C-alpha cells in the first residue's frame, strides 16, 4: 500500500462525513465529489465499504429515493452522532495537521 493510500485511509471517514454534511448524496456522486476536490484515489470501490462502515457506526443513514435516470438510489444523510463525530474528527485533525505541517515545512 502506498504512503498516499495509507494517509488517505486515515482521514477518509472525515472527508466522507464532511461531504454528506453539506448535502445528501449517493455513492457514485460522493466518489465524484471527492475526486473533484483532488482525491483521485477515491473510487466507487473504495467508497461503498466506507459508507457501510459509517452506517454500521450510526454516523450516517441511507434512504432509497427515486432517480430521474434509472433505478432508485440510496442517498446518505448525516445522523446527530455523525455530526458529533465529524466535529471530533475536525478538532483532532487540526491538532495533528498544524504541528505536522510545521515539522514538514522545516525540511
UniProtKB/TrEMBL annotation:
State the name under which the record lists this protein: PadR family transcriptional regulator
Please list every transmembrane segment annotated in the UniProt record, as residue ranges.
none
For this protein, the record's Gene3D superfamilies field holds: Winged helix-like DNA-binding domain superfamily/Winged helix DNA-binding domain (1.10.10.10)
**Species annotation:** Siminovitchia terrae (Bacillus terrae)
Organism placement in taxonomy: Bacteria, Bacillati, Bacillota, Bacilli, Bacillales
- Pfam families, alphabetically? PadR
What InterPro entries is this protein classified in? Metal_resp_DNA-bind_regulator, Tscrpt_reg_PadR_N, WH-like_DNA-bd_sf, WH_DNA-bd_sf
Q: Domain Transcription regulator PadR N-terminal: where?
A: 16-87
What span is annotated as the signal peptide, if there is one?
A: none
Amino acid at each position: 500500500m502506498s504512503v498516499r493510500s495509507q494517509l488517505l485511509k486515515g482521514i477518509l471517514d472525515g472527508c466522507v462525513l464532511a461531504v454528506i454534511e453539506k448535502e445528501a448524496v449517493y455513492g457514485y456522486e460522493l466518489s465524484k465529489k471527492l475526486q473533484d476536490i483532488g482525491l483521485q484515489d477515491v473510487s466507487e470501490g473504495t467508497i461503498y465499504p466506507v459508507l457501510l462502515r459509517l452506517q454500521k457506526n450510526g454516523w450516517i443513514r441511507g434512504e432509497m429515493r427515486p432517480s430521474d435516470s434509472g433505478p432508485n438510489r440510496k442517498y446518505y444523510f448525516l445522523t446527530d452522532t455523525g455530526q458529533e463525530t465529524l466535529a471530533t474528527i475536525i478538532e483532532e485533525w487540526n491538532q495533528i495537521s498544524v504541528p505536522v505541517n510545521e515539522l514538514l515545512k522545516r525540511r
